[in-house]
Amino acid sequence: MPRILVIPGDGIGIEVTEVSVSILKAVGEKNGVEFTLERELLGGCAIDEHGVPLTKETIEKAKQSDAVLLGAVGGPKWENLDHHLKPERGLLELRKQLDTYANLRPAIVYGALADASTLKREVVEGVDIMVVRELTSGIYFGHPRGTERINDLENKAFNTLNYTTSEIERVAKTAFEIARKRKNKVTSIDKSNVLESMVLWRDTVTEIHKREFSDVALEHLYVDNAAMQLIRRPADFDVMLAGNMFGDIISDEAAQLTGSLGMLPSASIGNKGAIYEPVHGSAPDIAGKGIANPIASILSMAMMMRYSFDMDGAAAQVEEAVTKVLDKGCRTSDIYEEGKTRVGTEEMGSLILNEL
Ligand code: NAD
Fold first, then answer.
1. Is residue 286 domain-shared with residue 331, that is, in the same domain?
2. Is this structure's pTM higher than 0.90?
3. Residue 71 φ/ψ, nearest 5 degrees
4. Which of 160, 233, 311, 347 has its CA at 20 to 30 Å from residue 33's CA atom?
């Protein structure tokens, strides 16, 4: 029985996760799989209950689960706490504990929403990209790092961009394996014309491709060119693989092609577990109003079906149900356009459930 730890978190995290869980149960039933669900607190609600944003028990339960379904954390109530007590620290610590080295960020332009993009419909129509970003190494974690005084007038600040062969290999493998489930193409992004660490990146990706994934199409792009091509011809990309910093930037650029934050799911795949969560935060401005878009969370749950449980059929059922509801003109406030039917969080969930 697959074990899922459900962590709704704070604000709209609670509202959207509730909807996802009801769809998760229905999808399980439809496919003859019974999921074991446990619930835990994380973020502000954990601070209120336990005095810390993430407890040891929650870490243990997450490690023992096959996957974590997370909502969002944070809110104004906890903003002024010490840095180590902030809700977001709990989320970062959970990712660290599960050693989530690959961050998966799909960017899909739904036909029904193509006009919401800042780019022309004919450029973004059909866009279905998966950005695979290395998440636990690279310049955000490299040593030495710091700031030092170099003379009476100046400081010097420095960071280190380093990668080991095995760090590159494991995230590249994830990208190639995902490509095999999609359109079978990987675009690897680097800056090997300037940086030694990126020469190792390109050589390692090329080597593992030759050794294990020669059936997948592979192209290499320098990051500056990739940023341009992503705006010029986004529909040509399938899986985009990048290190931590380039992946951070490229995944936000890809997301922007699609229109709304309420539509963006994500997954963080690790050695000791996987976390599935919407890209958006706890949205305190709309929390409790019943108007949050639950689709990012629902699509995160669909990713869980595909990447943690190999239930590709179930994932496709959920994704198709979302597409049908959008095609019928139903919209939450964040993606509302004139002439469409405005629905709340729960109603959007029920409509998707009905299409399963
Ligand atoms: P946010 O993503 O919560 O909200 C940004 C804007 O988008 C808001 O106007 C919000 O109403 C809207 N929005 C977001 N998700 C939506 C949805 N599903 N449906 C409809 N509208 C939606 O970002 P923020 O306002 O910068 O941060 C709010 C809190 O969330 C902060 O405490 C921040 O630290 C935290 N945060 C948490 C995560 C996470 O848990 N992964 C990510 C980002 C921010």
1. yes
2. yes
3. -95, -100
4. 347
Which residues have any ligand 1 atom within 6 Å of their CB? Answer: 12, 16, 72-75, 88, 91, 261-262, 277, 280-286, 292-293, 296, 334
**Domain containing residue 176:** 128-256
Is-contact 117 73, C-beta < 8 A? no
Residues paired with residue 187 on neighbouring β-strands, in sequence order: 219, 240
Show the tokens assigned to 265: 């799911």
* Number of domains within the chain: 2
Read off the CATH number of the domain in which 290 is found: 3.40.718.10
What is the share, in percent, of the chain residues with pLDDT greater than 90?
93
**Facing residues of 239 across strands?**
130, 186
Catalytic residue among 25, 63, 99, 140: 140
The Cα–Cα gap between 59 and 258 comes to: 34
Task: Please check whether residue 121 lies inside any domain of the structure.
Answer: no
Asked if the structure places residue 237 within a domain, the reply is yes
Helix or strand holding residue 8 (H, E): strand 3-9
Q: Domain for residue 120, yes or no? A: no
**pLDDT higher than threshold 90 for residue 243:** yes
